[in-house]
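Blinded run. Sample ID left blank on purpose so nobody reads anything into the name before looking at the predicted structure. Input follows.
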Amino acid sequence: MSAVAWAIPARAESLLDILPAPETAAGQAWAGVAEMIMVYYDVPNTGPGDMQCSLAFFLTGTQNCYKAQEESEFSAVSRIVKGYSQFAHESFGEIPVAMRWEEARTITPQDIIQEIKFERPILVQIEPPANEGENKGEKRAVLIVGFDGGPDNLQLIVNDPKIYAPTQNPYLEFGGRIRDNSGQYQIGYADFQSFLKWSATLYKIKPD
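Blinded prediction complete.
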């Protein structure tokens, strides 16, 4: 009597073509996240200056390349997703290209798999624990650009432009690993949700 071996196909990782971009100055990680999304969707740079400064100019009308101090990273990047692409195309006399999106607090592993399979990055807000010397943690915007595994053991691939001190990296502290020293990490879905305090999501981002 012969035994039949059933092969269980392994789920390969799925990763969008979005290179990580480290922050150009302290506090500018949000601009790196916004730039990654706009470059991915081929949204033109309206100027003045580089893309990150152009995005800040869109938000504030000033040329200092910074968002308003009181605005959160997630709010700033969300406003860029919702409005910059239409503004940019109109600035060049082109047909306006608006973005679609949906908002949620968090989304399920199945939703993440679907978004990446449909080649859509996911903007999320996290609040890692405060580093030594800080009074409280700061709310941050980061970009989910891929995954590994399946719904029951999902690993997220995250582009985070913030430059962390080696001993104060929340991804490493909570079981993740560095994939790219320019700011790409892999971390378990549950750890990301619980320990990095995932609290807001913009997903189904797609040109209309």
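Unblinding after everyone has recorded impressions. The two ends are 59 Å apart (CA to CA).
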